[in-house]
User: What shape does this take?
Amino acid sequence: MMSRLKDPEAFWRAPERLFPDPPLDELGSSLTRLGPVYWKERMFFGGAPDPQMERITGTFPAGGARSRGTHPLFVLRADPVAVRVCPCSTKRWNARRCIRKGCVLEITGRTTEQTSYLVEECAFLLPRDPAFWTSLRFWGRVPETCLKQVENP
Assistant: This one.
């Protein structure tokens, strides 16, 4: 006879037990790559290829299919089932929030050089294909105090 879980949500929490969080704070600035299973809300990554982002979002960045450039990604939500991210840009893109210039990122201690606007209207679920996320470089986790509401122009 099959036993039932007392807590139906336990199934979805299982990956957290299977993959315990590494000591990110101890790794600090030496940490440059981080698999999606360890991603948390407010983590910030660089190196998302423009052509792939335009293919996924349909609109971002303008001219992305022809570009060889990259844009950062910001983690909006991360859970064992999916990771929701949005691209970031130095252009406003009707953004409601931004990461302020000069922000000292948690874990790595890296300082942001520019204001990065969160292009949340182009948010998407992180593709499972490692070809997309293996090129991303971990920059750190954005403290709540560095997220600012963008005022209307």
Summary: Residues 1-5 have pLDDT under 50 and may be disordered.
